[in-house]
Amino acid sequence: MSDDKYDARATSRLLAVQALYQMDIARTPLDVVIVEFSDHRVENPLDGTEMPAADLEYFEFILRSVMDYQTKIDRAIDGYLAENWRLSRLDSTLRAILRCGVCELVGEPKAPSGVVVSQYTDIAHAFFDDAQGGMVNALLDRVADAVTKGDISTGL
């Protein structure tokens, strides 16, 4: 994967997390958030921090896949959370990160799992302390391992 594609996908992942968060908190409909982010947020995903251009098709793929397969994704996440924890108990941003990460690991087998885990862990560390970032890393690692072993079927 070229560095440009890698960087574009990294930006798309961050934007997808932000868009899912907005959809959760503000109840913004999917098509509205896609247009809003495509028209206004792509140039400035981190409010002033210079970022590579996003791959808008990949951004939309992540969002639509998470929304279309949210029940399956949420069940997978719940299955890998620590005992007595449920996705519904987590912070909205953390839920968005996990949903996007699991969506890609399960729904896009061509995406390198190490890159997916690393980039969503980096996003988690940008928003949370080490404990939540470590939890994202551990959960996504377990899902990636399960996909590799065939314990979770790929494709959504």
Structure report:
By secondary structure, the chain is an all-alpha fold. It has one domain (3-149): N-utilizing Substance Protein B Homolog, Chain A (Orthogonal Bundle). The chain is built from seven helices and no strands. It has helices at 3-26, 30-41, 56-68, 70-80, 92-107, 113-127, 130-149. The model has no long low-confidence stretch (mean pLDDT 87).
Brief synopsis:
This protein has helices at 3-26, 30-41, 56-68, 70-80, 92-107, 113-127, 130-149. The protein has 156 residues and is mainly alpha-helical. It has a single domain (3-149), classed as NusB-like (N-utilizing Substance Protein B Homolog, Chain A).
Which residues form runs of ≥5 with pLDDT under 50? none
Strand residues, percent: under 5%
Shape: globular
CATH architecture: Orthogonal Bundle
Brief descriptors of the model:
156 residues, mainly alpha, N-utilizing Substance Protein B Homolog, Chain A
Give the arrangement of secondary structure elements:
Elements: H1 3-26, H2 30-41, H3 56-68, H4 70-80, H5 92-107, H6 113-127, H7 130-149
